Every structure is written in structure tokens, then in C-alpha cells.
């Protein structure tokens, strides 16, 4: 059998592995080499051309392929509370709303 499986019935991917066959390594980072730098969870997805790609779903306040980048404003108060941290820019996307009054890009 291929893949890295765990569970009573070998139905779960072992830590650090993803994909339908548990054969896609999760991104690692940081000095410890933890999966998603210890700041997220490994997900399995398919790219637009159908290829498999593993990626990290980062906890709030962190972005990057392996959640290695702390958002501006710090993890405790990302984007000064006026936006959300964007993995596409590795920075903040400001909230634009007449109600909240926060503007920017």
C-alpha cells in the first residue's frame, strides 16, 4: 500500500501527510521543521489544472506557504484590527466599508 496511514482502520493520514492517498507531504517550516510551522493545519487541494497540491490553512495572524510569515500588527492584533491578512500579498487587505469607516488597499 502506498501512503502514510493511521487510525484503527488505517483511514486517516498520518501527521505531516495529505491527499487522497496520504502521499502528499505537508509544507514544513521554521527552525523546528513543524508542519505549517506549527501555525496552521495541512489541507489537500487540487490546482486548476488538476494537480494535487498540499497547503497550510494558517491560524489568524499568519500567512505563507508554511504559515511562516506573521501579519503586520502581530498575530494578536493582525492588520491593526482594520482588515484581514492576505496570503496572496503576505500583507493586509484593509476593510472598506461606509459603516466601519476603514479604508485602504
Automatic annotation (TrEMBL):
<feature type="domain" description="EGF-like">
    <location>
        <begin position="56"/>
        <end position="67"/>
    </location>
</feature>
<dbReference type="InterPro" id="IPR013111">
    <property type="entry name" value="EGF_extracell"/>
</dbReference>
<keyword id="KW-1015">Disulfide bond</keyword>
<dbReference type="InterPro" id="IPR000742">
    <property type="entry name" value="EGF"/>
</dbReference>
<dbReference type="Pfam" id="PF07974">
    <property type="entry name" value="EGF_2"/>
</dbReference>
<protein>
    <recommendedName>
        <fullName>EGF-like domain-containing protein</fullName>
    </recommendedName>
</protein>
Amino acid at each position: 500500500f502506498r501512503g502514510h496511514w493511521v487510525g484503527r482502520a488505517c483511514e486517516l493520514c498520518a501527521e505531516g501527510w495529505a491527499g487522497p492517498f496520504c502521499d502528499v507531504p505537508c509544507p514544513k517550516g521554521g527552525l523546528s521543521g513543524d508542519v505549517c510551522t506549527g501555525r496552521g493545519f495541512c489541507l489537500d487541494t487540487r490546482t486548476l489544472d488538476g494537480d494535487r497540491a498540499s497547503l497550510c490553512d494558517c491560524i489568524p495572524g499568519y500567512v505563507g506557504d508554511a504559515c511562516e510569515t506573521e501579519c503586520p500588527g502581530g498575530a494578536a492584533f493582525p492588520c491593526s484590527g482594520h482588515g484581514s491578512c492576505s496570503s496572496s500579498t503576505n500583507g493586509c487587505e484593509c476593510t472598506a466599508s461606509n459603516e466601519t469607516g476603514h479604508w485602504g488597499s
